[in-house]
Amino acid sequence: MASDTQAQGTPKKGRRPKDPEGRMSLGEHLIELRNRLVISAITIVLLSIVGWLIYPWVFDALQRPFTQAASQGMQADLNFQGVGTGLNVRLQMSAYVGIILSSPMLMLQIWLFVMPGLHKNERKYAIGFFGSAIPLFFLGCVAGYWAVNQLVPVMLSFTPVSDTVTQYIKYDEYLALLVKTMLAFGIAFVMPVVLVLLNFLGILRGKTMLRAWRWVIFVCFAFTAVMVPTPEPITLIGMSLAISSLFFAAVGIALLHDRRHPRVEDEELDDETASRIDGPSDLDDDGEGR
Questions:
Q1: CA distance 33 to 110
Q2: Which phi and psi (to 5°) does residue 170 adopt?
Q3: How far is CA 151 from CA 10, 64, 79, 82, 158, in A?
């Protein structure tokens, strides 16, 4: 019986017993990082296969700006230069589709990697962050696709309209422009959620965010003007207000959180008042921390 009890209490050889506080060694962190990267890579590969299968539908969707430009009398043709360009473009497009579709899984793996080092309240905030960041990211990607649909006809309008002039555009360059624009709008739509997360973690206050509202509006209008250079002002104002409204929504949530959970700053205390960290309430009678 003693030997059986001893065998049950002894950890298996080669395995380190788990720390009750959840702490991990450097080697365990590296193993965890490797596992998350492997899962992310497998997800991207599988969804890239899906992108390969839906390539004809995606290709038709990406041709719509040029179809619209052709209906306006502009002559622009997508050019596949080289024998293997068609295969290269299909591989690139499949990879881009795989990365965009796998973004929820990538965010989940990031969350699972950093979760053991967070407190319970920080985990709650992080869950809300990922729950809102994923749909906003996809919404930003859709806005980026719409922006490219508005951008291409405007850029092609600078080409002289003539029977002897035809503009040839490399498809891989156009595809890179589309993906960069979609990612830019996706990140822009997620940034307000990042600000809210920083506020909930006690890093950034709502009043500090509100002080920069003029610069934020200027950046939103400048960003939209560069990404969506449409001649009519309604599109510029509408898209800029949509991005700015996300920022002000983040500011409102941050101000409400600061009001419900006020924080005492050390610089606001008197010289004779102990700070929140060094206060006697955090010490036991023997001088040791709780």
A1: 9
A2: -70, 130
A3: 67, 12, 19, 27, 12
* Residue 11 dihedral angles phi and psi, to the nearest 5°: -65, 155
Amino acid at 12: K
Task: List pLDDT tens digits, range 77-134.
Answer: 777 877 788 888 889 889 989 988 888 888 888 877 777 766 666 667 677 777 788 8
Please name the residue that has the structure tokens 């997800």.
Answer: 43
Give me the residue label for tokens 């555009």.
169
Distance of CA 217 to the CA centre of its chain: 20
3-state secondary structure the chain: CHHHHHHHHCCCCCCCCCCCCCCCCHHHHHHHHHHHHHHHHHHHHHHHHHHHHCHHHHHHHHCHHHHHHHHCCCCEEEECCCCCHHHHHHHHHHHHHHHHHCHHHHHHHHHHHHHHHCCHHHHHHHHHHHHHHHHHHHHHHHHHHHHHHHHHHHHHCCCCCCCCCCEEEEHHHHHHHHHHHHHHHHHHHHHHHHHHHHHHCCCCCHHHHHHCHHHHHHHHHHHHHHHCCCCCHHHHHHHHHHHHHHHHHHHHHHHHHHHHCCCCCHHHCCCCCCCCCCCHHHECCCCCEC
Long-range own/partner contacts, residues 46-51 (CB < 8 A, 24 or more apart): 46/98, 47/97, 47/98, 47/99, 47/101, 47/102, 48/94, 48/95, 48/97, 48/98, 48/99, 49/94, 49/98, 50/97, 50/98, 50/101, 51/93, 51/94, 51/95, 51/96, 51/97, 51/98, 51/101
**Distance, CA of 87 to CA of 78 (rounded, Å):** 15
What pTM was estimated for this model as a whole? 0.66
| pLDDT band of 20, cuts 50, 70, 90 | low
